[in-house]
Amino acid sequence: MAVTTGSSGGFVLAFLAAFGAGARVAVAAPGYPAYRNILKAFDIECVPVPVGPASRWQLTAAVLDTVPGPLDGVVVASPSNPTGSMLSPREVADLAVWCETRRVRLISDEIYHGITYGAAAASAAGLAPHAVVVNSFSKYYAMTGWRLGWLVLPPDLVRAVECLQQNLFISPPTLSQIAAAAVFDCIPELDARVAAYRTNRDILLEELPKAGFARLAPSDGAFYLYADVADLTDDSPAFCRRMLAETGVAVTPGTDFDPFGGGRTLRFSFAGAEADMVEAAARLRNWRS
């Protein structure tokens, strides 16, 4: 295990330690854009794999079977940003077997673990002997901006990550580590925050379809709703700019997450106050009526 300077620092360490220049690494589209950007910076070929309702917006073993050419790595996120979808325990186990039998390195982004609205999220730790797990204090522990996270590493990558950590980051900030030690005594408050996210999610799931945003990815975890708006626009950045100007409601265009179909999707975040969710939904209903 290695302590890192947040989730992005964790991916920097994981990608540098696990892959060489020219390696091919599969990521879901839509998916967190930093995966693509960091891989590109290291001259690692990012292989975006379109996912949708058929696989519940996740890279599964069955989806990976359709990817042409050999792979050196696979990045999965459960719960996912931007869709909030999750892999089932069986799907995580199947992915672990798929990667192990093909000698493909599995990188599991688990930074939204703890923010789920049904079953707990399954971890790749213990299932895939050569997997790398990336986690962070940012989301469940509500320490976004404190730049503190951790990696769970297989033995063959420990020394490489130690050397990279020493040269790139040295260590996370001392104040962040002290603050993080205190959050383990705050579990009731953190769980109450997750319950508040669930309330916000339920409000938007009820109200957004009334405003014409009915095709939503399953928000099993995290604090996002991903909407298919192909019936409204094929230019999501322009649509988001108009929405902001005319309603004061800010959402993220899907082009941030999906180089293929992102012009027809949006991401809503429900990490704010309940009153803000109610007000935003009312404004969008009025806007679309």
Q: Spell out the CATH superfamily of the largest domain.
A: Type I PLP-dependent aspartate aminotransferase-like (Major domain)
**Overall pLDDT score:** 96
Encode the helix/strand succession as letters.
EHEHEHEHEEEHHHEHEEH
Assign the CATH topology of the largest domain: Aspartate Aminotransferase, domain 2
Measured by DSSP, the beta-strand proportion falls in 15-25%
Any overview of this molecule?
Strands 1-7-6-5-4-2-3 form a 7-stranded mixed beta sheet, with helices on both faces. It has a 3-stranded antiparallel beta sheet with strand order 8-10-9. It contains 9 helices and 10 strands. α1 crosses α5. The longest helix has 21 residues, at 187-207. The chain is α/β, with parallel strands linked by helices and 289 residues long. It is globular, with a radius of gyration of 19 Å.
Set out the fold topology.
Blueprint: E1 2-4, H1 7-18, E2 24-29, H2 33-41, E3 45-50, H3 61-64, E4 73-77, H4 89-102, E5 105-109, E6 132-136, E7 149-152, H5 155-168, H6 174-183, H7 187-207, E8 224-228, H8 236-247, E9 252-253, E10 265-269, H9 274-288
Parallel strand pairs: 2-3, 2-4, 4-5, 5-6
Antiparallel strand pairs: 1-7, 6-7, 8-10, 9-10
Helix pairs in contact: 1-2, 1-5, 7-9
